[in-house]
Amino acid sequence: MSSLAEMATILLAPKDRDPVLGDLAETGASGWGALGSVLGLVVRQQMELWRAWQPWVASGVAFAGSVLLLSVSFGLSVDSRHLLRGERGYGSVLCEALLMLSWAWTSGFVVGSLSGKTRWVSGILCAIPCLSCVLRFQDNSLSRLCVLLFLLPGVVGAVQGVRRARLSPMTALTLATAMTALILVWGGMYMQNWFLYLPAWWLVAHAKRSPPNEKVAA
Amino acid sequence: MTKVPNYLHNAVHIMLGEFEYVLITVAAGLGECAYGAAIREEIEKVAARRCSIGALYTTIERLEKKGLLKTWMGEATAQRGGRAKRMVCVTPKGLHAAKKFYEAMMRVSRNASWATGKPGRAS
Questions:
Q1: Do A45 and B81 touch (CB under 8 A)?
Q2: Alpha carbons B96 and B68: distance in angstroms, whole number
């Protein structure tokens, strides 16, 4: 059997590696044939994941969420500059910052909890608009990295989403209600911002469906 | 008013795909000897069709998720380069689903020309 096929099995789940290599050895497959068989399995396993709705929702949230949060991050950077110049109040910028943090965290949480093994696709879909925006950034008075302010809370949310999958109903409801109250206080009720609430209310709806004895994040 | 009969009680709860049915049938036939390479060889021999490792393992995975198959790691042999086998066992639920699929196919084929031996209409 070719060492290429053995190397390619790194793309498989650990539990699949031995049986697949053993089957190939038993049937006498070698060289390109063995490599093709392993890669065929990898492709099929990836395609199989997309038969479920979860990766599609996660990809949509990752892409649309990052596009919207790029502009939110930019808006927050501009407003912070205004705050330093005394043209803006602390309260308004604080609300905006808290909203950006919570939008990014809840979006990341939903992406992390729904992506499963397709999280690399969600990562790419989030990275594409980020890279595009950073490379085409034209405001010389601000660092081009200012549009990426949402990335850290988003990644933290995604990691927690992978680990926990869902929040307790009380936590999810408190978070979504607090976020809705914040936007009412802040006054930034633009249509694009309402889309960013969907992950938070999704977490509420998803938490409600969990069985009472299932382990959920506090 | 004519009452429409309710046939829903006859519905197959887990409708198998054709390849899923072939895999379950072959695995059930092999019994305790059912594992990846043996199933693949049997499918190629009996069904006279090529069976790739990709098709085999993704279908095993899907059937296991549906609760129709159970798998576990078996022994390693020198013939396999010291690699373990992934043993496969059909669950009672899997046997039931295969039986339902078989019965449904028999019912559907009842009046087909290839089943009755009578010449059929071709468009």
A1: no
A2: 9
CA distance B65 to B100: 19
Smallest Cα–Cα separation from A4: which of A16, A18, A21?
Answer: A21
User: Residue A132 half-sphere exposure, CB side, CA atoms within 13 Å?
Assistant: 11
Q: Does an H or E element contain A161, and which?
A: helix A151-164
Kind plus residue range of the DSSP H or E element containing B84: strand B83-90
Give A13 to chain B, closest Cα distance, Å.
12
Whether residues A23 and A116 fall in one domain: no
Q: What is the pLDDT of residues A14-66, one digit of tens each?
A: 888 989 999 998 888 878 888 999 999 999 999 989 989 999 999 999 999 99
pLDDT of B5 reads 52
Phi/psi for A121 (5° steps) reads -70, -45
Please name the CATH architecture into which domain B14-102 falls: Orthogonal Bundle (1.10)
A129-148 residue pLDDT tens: 999 999 988 888 888 889 99
Closest chain A CA to residue B58: A45
Q: In chain A, how many domains are there?
A: 2
User: How far apart are alpha carbons B72 and B94 in whole angstroms?
Assistant: 16
In this structure, are residues A159 and A112 in contact, taking their beta carbons and an 8 Å threshold? Answer: yes
Question: Same structural domain for residues A187 and A124?
Answer: yes
Predicted-complex ipTM score: 0.76
Q: Do B57 and A21 lie within an 8 Å CB cutoff?
A: no
In this structure, is the dihedral angle defined by the CA atoms of residues A172, A173, A174 and A178, taken in order, positive or negative?
positive
Q: Which two tokens stand for residue A14?
A: 């650990």
Confirm whether pTM is higher than 0.95: no
Residues A103 and A25 in one domain: no
